[in-house]
């Protein structure tokens, strides 16, 4: 049965191999989206409803796995250049589009201070989603108009959204969170009518082989040669929580037909990060569930197989943190608030390129890292051997929430949030992009987006920024990337005229 095994594979041992389950579903439903020049303006009651649904299950108490040792080494690599202190960055921003580009008075009524933006593009046709909006541009980001995710696929819309374009089928895939299900939709990404005619399926817990009513949350998507893969965290009414994946054939989905699919679930790993660049074998990874802070688990599932394998590897130790466990991304004088207080060290970024599998996650400050930072670990794709690790870190502030994607030149594009400050220097959280080799880190990122205020507080009065960002290989020119970011504009969250403005950037 999926998720059942005898003993984990030890580092260097033959991988554990586990069978998956299967299911079948009927054809999808069709709906046409209205498009407007302005986003939906949510009422106070609707914002309260969405905010309540946004509170992820309180699962971040470290009850999965055991805590590893304190870091026993210095920083891995040189620190990142000071924002504004360099004239040349490794990543060149080719286009930076603010959404809405005109600047919308009262914008806080359509977007959450916890944005979670996701994007992809078919050339100049760009689709971007976030909390709690969906938007498109058909002129390469010069202007934007809006869809209404609150009503488009029925009631109960919540928050998490991710999207990816598949060039092979010409379809934009869109995954949305609801209070009792997920929705997976796809639409043509071509022409002036792009992103308007959607086919969709309601995905409940039974698709993953879980008990009806099990809560699904924190979802991810990646598309390979033959399949669309969705991962989710699950929280049953009783019993252990865990993570699960469904493998869905993309060709019948693109024609809104019925199909058979495969699935798996586990209760000994939490938060599966799917690997962009997977082709006819899906790779994914997790750093949460074994020895948190010094181990990593890599998974592989070939399209032709009804079973998957995994490998446990020991990695350089780091400070694995959970919600409000002492991490501090604020400035040393407290003017910039602790914007990663609500976050944790789950795996957020991944890629496959040039025979390397790479993964990234946030780590806690320590004696060698004055602020929270991002750790990147590298593995050999063929053997799953641990190659090494590097840090994106700084003495001037924190680097968090990194997303990653490969390009056709064998390099890795990243997008991340940054902020903090020392002395009288204050960096409110903003956005940056980077362009690095497959198993190294360039230390001169492009800090293209500067924040002008603090984020708001969430559950328990904790400051919250994340929970994720997105970067994709730009299909129109696979040497480039398209990414989503955001920053507070107009002052601190909650102040009159202040709101979190999303951006869409094209970079190389």
Give an overview of the whole structure.
This protein has helices at 44-54, 250-254; strands spanning 16-19, 21-25, 29-32, 66-67, 93-98, 118-122, 125-130, 133-137, 145-147, 157-166, 171-178, 182-188, 197-203, 215-223, 227-235, 242-249, 259-266, 273-274, 281-286, 291-292, 295-302, 307-314, 347-353, 356-363, 373-380, 386-392, 397-406, 412-420, 427-436, 446-449, 470-473, 481-489, 499-507. By secondary structure, it is mostly beta strands. It has one domain (59-507): Methylamine Dehydrogenase, Chain H (7 Propeller). The protein has a five-stranded antiparallel β-sheet with strand order 1-22-21-19-18, with no helix packed on it. A five-stranded antiparallel β-sheet has the order 2-17-16-15-14.
Observed structural traits:
Methylamine Dehydrogenase, Chain H; globular; 5-stranded antiparallel β-sheet; 508 residues; 33 strands; mainly beta; single chain
What is the compact description of this entry?
Helices cover 3% and strands 43% of the residues. It has two helices and 33 strands.
**DSSP E strands, number:** 33
Structural class: mainly beta
| Helical percentage | under 10%
Radius of gyration: 21 Å
Which strands sit side by side, in order, in the main sheet?
A: 1-22-21-19-18
> In DSSP terms, counting alpha (H) and pi (I) runs of 4 or more, how many helices?
2
Low-confidence stretches: 1-13, 58-62
Strand content: 35-45%
Q: Biggest β-sheet, characterized?
A: 5 strands, antiparallel
CATH architecture: 7 Propeller
| Level-1 CATH class name | Mainly Beta
Oligomer: single chain
| CATH evolutionary superfamily | YVTN repeat-like/Quinoprotein amine dehydrogenase
Number of domains: 1
Reported by name, the CATH topology is Methylamine Dehydrogenase, Chain H
Distance between the termini: 44 Å
């Amino acid at each position: 049965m999926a998720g059942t095994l005898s003993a984990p594979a030890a580092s260097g041992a033959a991988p554990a191999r586990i069978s998956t389950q299967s299911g079948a579903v009927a054809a999808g439903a069709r709906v046409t989206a209205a498009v407007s020049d302005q986003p939906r303006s949510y009422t106070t009651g609707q914002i309260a409803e969405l905010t309540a649904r946004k509170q992820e299950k309180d699962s971040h108490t470290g009850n999965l796995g055991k805590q590893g040792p304190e870091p026993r080494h210095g920083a891995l690599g040189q620190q990142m250049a000071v924002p504004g202190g360099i004239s040349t960055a490794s990543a060149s921003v080719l286009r930076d589009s603010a959404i809405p580009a005109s600047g919308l008075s009262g914008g806080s009524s359509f977007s959450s201070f916890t944005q979670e933006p996701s994007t992809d593009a078919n050339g100049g046709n760009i689709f971007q989603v976030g909390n709690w909006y969906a938007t498109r541009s058909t002129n390469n980001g010069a202007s934007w108009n809006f869809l209404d995710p609150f009503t488009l696929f029925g009631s109960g819309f919540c928050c998490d959204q991710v999207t990816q374009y598949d060039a092979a089928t010409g379809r934009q895939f869109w995954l949305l969170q609801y209070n009792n299900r997920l929705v997976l939709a796809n639409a043509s990404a071509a022409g002036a009518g792009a992103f308007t005619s959607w086919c969709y399926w309601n995905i409940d817990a039974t698709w993953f082989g879980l008990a009806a009513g099990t809560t699904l949350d924190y979802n991810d998507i990646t598309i390979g040669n033959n399949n669309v893969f969705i991962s989710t965290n699950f929280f049953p009414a009783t019993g252990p929580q865990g993570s699960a994946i469904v493998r869905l054939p993309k060709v019948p989905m693109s024609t809104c037909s019925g199909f058979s699919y495969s699935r798996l679930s586990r209760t000994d790993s939490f938060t599966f990060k799917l690997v962009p660049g997977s082709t006819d074998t899906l790779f994914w990874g997790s750093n949460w569930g074994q020895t948190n802070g010094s181990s990593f688990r890599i998974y592989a599932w070939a399209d032709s197989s009804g079973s998957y394998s995994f490998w446990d590897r020991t990695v350089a130790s780091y400070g694995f943190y959970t919600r409000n466990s002492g991490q501090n991304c604020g400035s040393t004088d407290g003017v910039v608030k602790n914007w990663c207080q609500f976050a944790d060290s789950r795996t957020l970024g991944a890629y496959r390129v040039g025979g390397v599998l790479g993964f990234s996650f946030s780590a806690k400050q320590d004696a060698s890292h004055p602020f929270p930072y991002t750790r990147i670990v590298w593995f050999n794709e063929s053997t799953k051997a641990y190659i090494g690790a590097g840090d994106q870190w700084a003495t001037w502030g924190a680097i968090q929430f990194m997303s990653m994607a490969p390009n056709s030149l064998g390099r890795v594009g990243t997008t991340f949030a940054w902020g903090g400050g020392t002395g009288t220097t204050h960096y409110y959280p903003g956005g940056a992009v980077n362009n690095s080799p497959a198993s190294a880190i360039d230390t001169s990122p492009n800090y293209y987006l500067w924040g002008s205020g603090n984020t708001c507080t969430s559950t328990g009065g904790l400051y919250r920024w994340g929970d994720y960002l997105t970067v994709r290989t730009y299909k129109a020119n696979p040497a480039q990337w398209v990414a989503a970011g955001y920053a507070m504009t107009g002052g601190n969250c909650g102040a009159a005229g202040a709101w979190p403005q999303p951006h869409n950037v094209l970079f190389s």
